[in-house]
Amino acid sequence: MSWHVTLYNVLTTVNNVILIVIGIPFMLQMLYMLLFWLPKKVFPKSETKNRICVIIPAHNEEDVIGETVRLLFEKQNYPKELFDVYVVAHNCTDRTAEIAEQAGAKVFRLDDPDPSRHIASYALKYGYEQILQTGIDYAFSIRLDADNHVNDDFFSLMNDAWCAGAKIARPYESALNMTQNQFTRACGLYYIFDSRFSSRVRERLHIDAHVNGPGSLTDMEIIRKIGGYDTVSITEDTEFNFKRMMEGYRCHFVEDAVVYEDLPSSFKDTLNRNKRIAAGNIRLLGRYTLPMMWNGVKQFRFSFFEQLLTYFFMVICLLLCTWIPGYYIYACSYLGAMGALTNAEAAAIGIAGPGLWQLLIIIGICLTVLFLVAGIAQGLLLVLLDYRKMGAKKRSELVSGALLFPAFTVVYCVTMAIGLFCKPKWEKIKRNTKARD
To answer: What is the mean predicted confidence (pLDDT) over 185-199?
Structure first.
């Protein structure tokens, strides 16, 4: 057997292993979609109303911070005297602090000349330190971003969950600008998948929720116990979640509490967002994979392995953008050059695998299944089930997003792969304020 045949066989074996590695988390996501019919978890209504602190880190957010704070005081069906809104104006060079105060927030100004600390985690750390110094006995905190809106019963629903024993919890994440353009329609469906499918199934199967975004609830006793906020990484929310899980806390999903955030409306916006996510999460995987696996065994909780599988998607994106296209271009070119068009011709020269025609058929079937079943079908199902939570009046407004869902998945994968090699800063974000009016 010639060396190039041996090389081809070795690379094919490596590729098969990689496909298995990619397939495990993919099948997990398919399981979540297939279990969409499971009923949502509803926490019992509590007559007790506890005191809440809301913390919002902000860097040059004068365009949106005022409305975010104002709507909390105007719209929440919760006693106004039982919640306070704190905005941490971090190295702001605009009117963020002034506007937040005018809207009713209590503002902490943080001016830190160290560029390595110009990320949201340091604003949160400082904010919690200041909140603890007030001496106010808050039951739990809600973390929001400067552009977030929440549904009118958000605080009440989170209070119900806390009274039922949820020390850490996340809400349903939806979009402010879902119908802005075709890009946001597809983008929104991608992000909402984790709320409607993955998070609901996790809660029903007693698997920990991924508490890694805006609207998250944290028991203030945890904050007091650890002396503030103990994570300062780029993706501090995910790291905070990992640490609390390893301490034995369970993480929950409060589905009826909805937080609305500003979606990326272009490839550039998505790239800027995913640079932060990918760069931060790949570093967290490097630091926490072994501790999380050890705790999964020690605590006998599948949740640790499930979280790692999900965050391993960062590595999968890189493989999908490099190895997978590279291998199959090489394989098809090699089989064609060797004249191994059929399985029999391939076997005759010692190739362990299909011939060119069979390989092309396999590639076609796989791409069809991925785009139609894992892409368009799940997008249409999301539209059918939850279009109202996405800000649409009719399902037809979002159908085009479902059809473009596979294309956005490719965009998401590419931007994540690029983000693995970036070190982003906390910069002013382009907000789609007009799209939300």
So the answer is: 87
